[in-house]
C-alpha cells in the first residue's frame, strides 16, 4: 500500500512536470510559423476599398434604391413596405461598416507606428471619414470613439452623438483635414500600394478629401455656418472636377469582380422593377437615361417604360412581371460598364450648385448645375440631347425650384448609391417621394435605419441608451443634422 501511494504521488509529479513544460512552451509550439502575425497595409487597403465598395454598391442598389424610390420590390418586400427591421435581399449595412472601419483602423495604426508605412496615414484617415459619414447618416448616433477597436479594447462601445462624430476632434471633418495634411507632409519615397481607387496618386486623394469636405459641410449646413470653409475649398479648386478624377473602381463583366446582381439567380434579379416615382421623374424630363437604367416592359408594343408604386402587399396583390420595367442590362449582363462609386465630379458640382443657389458660396449656380448634368450623363454613358439643358431640364424654368432641380438631378445619377438619394431626400425634401402602397410604418417615410438586433443582444447597455434617445429605436426620429 505504501509503495502504491509513492508510485501514485510520483505519477502526479511527473504529470505536473509534463503539463508545466507544455504550458511553458505552449505559445511557441502552437504558433503556425507560416501564418502572418500582421497583414501588410497594401493588402488591407485593397481589401477595404474593394469589400466596402462591392458590398455597399449591392446594398445601395437593393435596399437603398427601395428607400430612395428608384426601384420597387415585387416580392420579399417587407423592407420596401418600410419594415426596416426585416432585411431581406439587402438592408443590413451595419456589419459592412464596422468590418471595414476596423480593418481601416489597423492600416491607420500601422501607418502611425511603422515608419515605412507612413504613406498610408492620409488615405486611411480619409477613408475613415468617408465610411463614418455614411454610417452616421444612415443610423444617427453610433459607436465611434470606441467602435473600431474591439480586438484591443472594448467589445461594448459607447454610442457617440452625431454632432460630435462630425465636428469633434477625431471626427469626420477633422480626419479629412488631418488626412490632407498627412499627405502634404509625406516626404518619403515609398509608394502607396493596394490603391484601387487612384493607383497610388496621393494628389487624387487630396481631391477626394476636399470633395468629401464639400459633401459633409453641405450635409450639416442647416446646423452650423459652413460658408467660410466651403468658399475656401471652392476658390482653391482642389476637388474632384472631372469624371476622369472620380473615386471609383470598375466592375468586370465576369466573376469574381462583376456587380453582385449578375450573380443572383434570375428570380432575385427580377424582383426589382422601375418605381413609379423614378418613372415620372425621368419621363417628365424626357430623360434618355431611362433606357440605360431600365428596360421597356415586356408587354409593351412601343418600347415604353412602366413603373410600380413602392410598397405593394405582395401577399394580397397579384403583379405580372411583364407589365413593369426591369432594371437595365448594365446591372446584370453588362456590369463591366458599371463601377463602385465612392465620390464623383457630378456629385461635387451639384453640391456646389446648391451652395451657390443658397448663397452659401459666391459662384455661378447655373453653370455648376449644367456641368453636373453633363458629367452625370457622361458617367452613365448616355448622350446628352441638345434640348435637355435648354428645354427639358433648363435651369430656373418658370415655376421650377432651382434647389429641387439640383437635388433631383443628383438623385437620378445616384441610382447605384440609393442610400445617398434617400439621405439627400431627408435633408432637402427633394425629389418628392410618394406615400407607398401598403405601408408598415403608418404612411411615414423612414428618416433613419434602426440599429440591428445583434446590438441589443451584444451591447445591451449602450444600445439601450441609444434606443431610448430614438424612441425605442424608431425609424421616424430624425438624426441631428435633419432636426
TrEMBL record:
<dbReference type="InterPro" id="IPR011990">
    <property type="entry name" value="TPR-like_helical_dom_sf"/>
</dbReference>
<protein>
    <submittedName>
        <fullName>SusD/RagB family nutrient-binding outer membrane lipoprotein</fullName>
    </submittedName>
</protein>
<keyword id="KW-0449">Lipoprotein</keyword>
<dbReference type="Pfam" id="PF12771">
    <property type="entry name" value="SusD-like_2"/>
</dbReference>
<dbReference type="InterPro" id="IPR041662">
    <property type="entry name" value="SusD-like_2"/>
</dbReference>
Amino acid at each position: 500500500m505504501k509503495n502504491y501511494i509513492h508510485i501514485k504521488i510520483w505519477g502526479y509529479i511527473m504529470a505536473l512536470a509534463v503539463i508545466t513544460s507544455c504550458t511553458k512552451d505552449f505559445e511557441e509550439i502552437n504558433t503556425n510559423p507560416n501564418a502572418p502575425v500582421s497583414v501588410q497595409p497594401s493588402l488591407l487597403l485593397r481589401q477595404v476599398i474593394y469589400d466596402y465598395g462591392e458590398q455597399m454598391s449591392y446594398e445601395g442598389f437593393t435596399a437603398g434604391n427601395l428607400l430612395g424610390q428608384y426601384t420597387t420590390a415585387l416580392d420579399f418586400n417587407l423592407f420596401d413596405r418600410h419594415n426596416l427591421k426585416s432585411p431581406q435581399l439587402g438592408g443590413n449595412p451595419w456589419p459592412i461598416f464596422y468590418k471595414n472601419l476596423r480593418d481601416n483602423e489597423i492600416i491607420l495604426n500601422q501607418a502611425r507606428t511603422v515608419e515605412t508605412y507612413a504613406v498610408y496615414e492620409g488615405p486611411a484617415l480619409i477613408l475613415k471619414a468617408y465610411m463614418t459619414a455614411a454610417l452616421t447618416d444612415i443610423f444617427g448616433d453610433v459607436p465611434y470613439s470606441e467602435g473600431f477597436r474591439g480586438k484591443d479594447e472594448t467589445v461594448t462601445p459607447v454610442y457617440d452623438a452625431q454632432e460630435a462624430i462630425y465636428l469633434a476632434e477625431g471626427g469626420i471633418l477633422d480626419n479629412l483635414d488631418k488626412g490632407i495634411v498627412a499627405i502634404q507632409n509625406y516626404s518619403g519615397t515609398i509608394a502607396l500600394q493596394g490603391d484601387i481607387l487612384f493607383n497610388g496618386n496621393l494628389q487624387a486623394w487630396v481631391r477626394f478629401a476636399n470633395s468629401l469636405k464639400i459633401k459633409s459641410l453641405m450635409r450639416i449646413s442647416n446646423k452650423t455656418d459652413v460658408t467660410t470653409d466651403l468658399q475656401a475649398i471652392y476658390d482653391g479648386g482642389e476637388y474632384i472636377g472631372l469624371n476622369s478624377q472620380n473615386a471609383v473602381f470598375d466592375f468586370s463583366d465576369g466573376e469574381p469582380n462583376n456587380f453582385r446582381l449578375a450573380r443572383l439567380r434570375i428570380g432575385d434579379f427580377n424582383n426589382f422593377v422601375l418605381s413609379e416615382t423614378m418613372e415620372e421623374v425621368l419621363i417628365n424630363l424626357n430623360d434618355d437615361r431611362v433606357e440605360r437604367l431600365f428596360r421597356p416592359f415586356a408587354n409593351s408594343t412601343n418600347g415604353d417604360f412602366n413603373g410600380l408604386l413602392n410598397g405593394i402587399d405582395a401577399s394580397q396583390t397579384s403583379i405580372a412581371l411583364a407589365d413593369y420595367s426591369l432594371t437595365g442590362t448594365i446591372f446584370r449582363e453588362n456590369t463591366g460598364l458599371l463601377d463602385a462609386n465612392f465620390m464623383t465630379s457630378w456629385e461635387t458640382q451639384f453640391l456646389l450648385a446648391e451652395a451657390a443657389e443658397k448663397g452659401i458660396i459666391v459662384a455661378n449656380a447655373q453653370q455648376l448645375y449644367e456641368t453636373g448634368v453633363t458629367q452625370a450623363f457622361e458617367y452613365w454613358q448616355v448622350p446628352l440631347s441638345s434640348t435637355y439643358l435648354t428645354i427639358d431640364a433648363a435651369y430656373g424654368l418658370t415655376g421650377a425650384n432651382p434647389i429641387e432641380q439640383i437635388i433631383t438631378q443628383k438623385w437620378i445619377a445616384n441610382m447605384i448609391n440609393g442610400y445617398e438619394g434617400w439621405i439627400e431626400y431627408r435633408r432637402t425634401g427633394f425629389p418628392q417621394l410618394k406615400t407607398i402602397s401598403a405601408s408598415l410604418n403608418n404612411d411615414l417615410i423612414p428618416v433613419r435605419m434602426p440599429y440591428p438586433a445583434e446590438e441589443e443582444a451584444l451591447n445591451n447597455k449602450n444600445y439601450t441608451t441609444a434606443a431610448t434617445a430614438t424612441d425605442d429605436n424608431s425609424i421616424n426620429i430624425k438624426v441631428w443634422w435633419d432636426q
